[in-house]
Amino acid sequence: MAQFSPSTRRLVVVVLTLVLAFLTLAQAAAQETKPEAAPSLQVPSAGGPEGELGPYSVPKKPAQPPPPPERPKPVRNPAELGEITITRNVPLVNVDVMVTTQNGQFVPGLRKENFRVLEDGAAQQVSSFSVSQAPITAVMLVEFASTHYGFMMDALRASYSFAETLKPNDWIAVISYDMRQYILTDFTQDKREVIAALNQLRIPGFSETNLFDALYDTMDRLDGLPGRKYVILISSGRDTFSKINYNRILQKLRASRDTTIFSISTGRAFREGMEARYGRNIEFNAANMDYLQADNEMVTFARYTGGRAYFPRFQAEFPEIFRDIGASIRNQYLLSYHPTNTRQDATYRKLKVELVDPQSGKPLKVLDQKGKEVKYNVISREGYTAKPQVD
Questions:
Q1: What are the residue ranges of helices labelled H in the chain?
Q2: pLDDT digits (tens, 9 = 90+) for 287-314
Q3: CA–CA separation, 146 vs 153, rounded Å?
Q4: pLDDT tens-digit map of 42-73
Q5: 180 DSSP assignment
Q6: Number of domains into which the chain is organized
Q7: Full residue range of the structural domain in which residue 185 is found
Q8: Which residues of 264-293 are buried (b: 16+ CB within 10 A; e: fewer)?
Q9: Cα separation of 103 and 291, whole Å?
Q10: Do both 252 and 311 map to the same domain?
Q11: Is the pLDDT of residue 1 over 50?
Q12: Which of 235, 250, 313, 383 sits CB 3.0–4.6 Å from 143 for a disulfide?
């Protein structure tokens, strides 16, 4: 390796020192002359950045519409509740129909298709049909007043005759009336109690005969009992002292759906005897007008409720009458239908029941065993009052 002199080494150190100093000065000068970075711009949310000429327009992003609400999922019945059914109260009308010959004999063998029910002239669809041969529930309503011996004896004979037709499963109550009502026995199936109640009718009290009050009160009591009921009305038909009037009792009968009245007039033989004797007497004719009106009322009571009225003249007629009544109420056709007029507006609806041939739609012909056509009667109530809507 070559050897440098001391003077040469000193020169090399001086040169290196100068070079290093020069490089340091150049680097410092370069850092001072470097341009500054531009400041970052913050874009306000309402528009562009602010400048000398105002804000710059920066398009906004369109607002995103809110997501549509989720449709509720169908709610199903919990398993523990089972199926839930919504029902509607549809009225049901029951109609008892008796079909008898001119002699009062029951006409058997009719079918559902043979009956046509008209409500206010509109045909109805019969939903159920049956023939009734069941025990009866009836009230024997007896007029027993201090009027005349013939009337009282007819009332007793008719009452005992009806009691003899009772069967073990029948429910019977006995009520007598003059100025007021007397419950001689409540509903019982014991015929002996019925006979004992009739045995109390020995000495009449008042001469007044408040038929309308007694019948209204009896119908009112029967309204609370379920099923079919009957009133065996044994009376002269005269009313002399009632608080309610004739129109009021007719309204009550129209509103009753399940009660049928069979009326048996008393004193007919006595009246005909008096008419033969005093027919030209003005006073008698005036008094007889009351009984003619009473007969009309007895017919109306029965017709309004689908029953029949009887006017016996002889004692021997009573057993036959009550056998006929028994055959009617134990053998009758029961029809039910849902009316097309479903309004429960307390209006009166007229009913009419006809027998028709289901094939031709013409009136039904009933033949006897010899093939001869038989005239018949179709007996049913004339109408009913629709129940008012209860909120």
A1: 6-32, 149-164, 191-198, 211-222, 246-255, 268-278, 282-305, 317-330
A2: 678 889 999 999 999 999 989 999 999 9
A3: 12
A4: 444 444 445 444 444 445 555 667 777 776 66
A5: S
A6: 2
A7: 135-329
A8: bbbbbbbbeebeeeeeeeeeeeeebeebee
A9: 26
A10: yes
A11: no
A12: 235
